[in-house]
Amino acid sequence: MASFLRSSAPRSIAQQASRFAAVQQPLAARTRAAPFLFRRGLASASVPEQPRLRLGSVAPNFKASTTQGDIDFHQWIADSWAILFSHPADFTPVCTTELGAFAKLKDEFEKRGVKMIGLSANDIGSHGKWIEDINEISNTNLSFPIIGDADRNVAFLYDMITQDDLENAGRATAFTIRSVFIIDPSKKIRLTMMYPASTGRNSAEVLRVIDSLQTGDQKGVTTPIDWQVGDDVIVPPTVSTEDAKKKFGKDNVREVKPYLRYTTI
Ligand code: BEZ
């Protein structure tokens, strides 16, 4: 399916959104009608069942087509960390800049053992054309897969749809499907972020969180506000000061308050 944003003269966001609704395919069979849709007289609209996505819960598995072939998501992650980030449609301007930035950071993600995968609610033929634009605009060579989610099955499975999109089912806006998930090698969700269409994501923050999570897992510490690699870290409340001194060195625990102890690693 060709992207609705590419095909002709520039459109307003509202025009793009209504065209986006028009090209959406029917939702999958495994659906239930949302109660508020009945109340609003939109009972024919429905949303798929979705598991609760909590930090620490297993990221739902799915099979999908991507720009690099078909995948089983868990098998694709294998023993790596993974970042899944999503987009409502190809050829959207903010998303174009985001994918270019992530593509440029390939080495940084690889260094941390993190596989990257994008998702956009168009088909993979359209993604291929969008990738050409992204590479041209950002002077990069995007080399991670992008999931074709034209029927928005994965977007619903991961609860990436915004409230106004659900409530306007059948007249859906495109201001939706802009999530970030960090998933660890045991397939647990370690971070979720959901961005509005108006605000480009912060790739440095994604890397910073990965650094914090991996440092925490390896060293048994937590990290304070705005922490960067090399800064002091925090001894978690579950570790006594005595044990912290044994672990990090007797002169390497700085107690600001009994509940706030810094150390270096
Ligand atoms: C974007 O600029 O990426 C965008 C525009 C409209 C809807 C969603 C995203």
Automatic annotation (TrEMBL):
Protein name, as recorded: Thioredoxin domain-containing protein
UniProt-listed InterPro entries: AhpC/TSA (IPR000866), Peroxiredoxin_AhpC-typ (IPR024706), Peroxiredoxin_C (IPR019479), PRX_1cys (IPR045020), Thioredoxin-like_sf (IPR036249), Thioredoxin_domain (IPR013766)
Domain of life of the native organism: Eukaryota
Protein keywords: Antioxidant, Oxidoreductase, Peroxidase, Redox-active center
Stated role: Thiol-specific peroxidase that catalyzes the reduction of hydrogen peroxide and organic hydroperoxides to water and alcohols, respectively.
Every Thioredoxin domain range: 53-215
A Pfam cross-reference name: AhpC-TSA
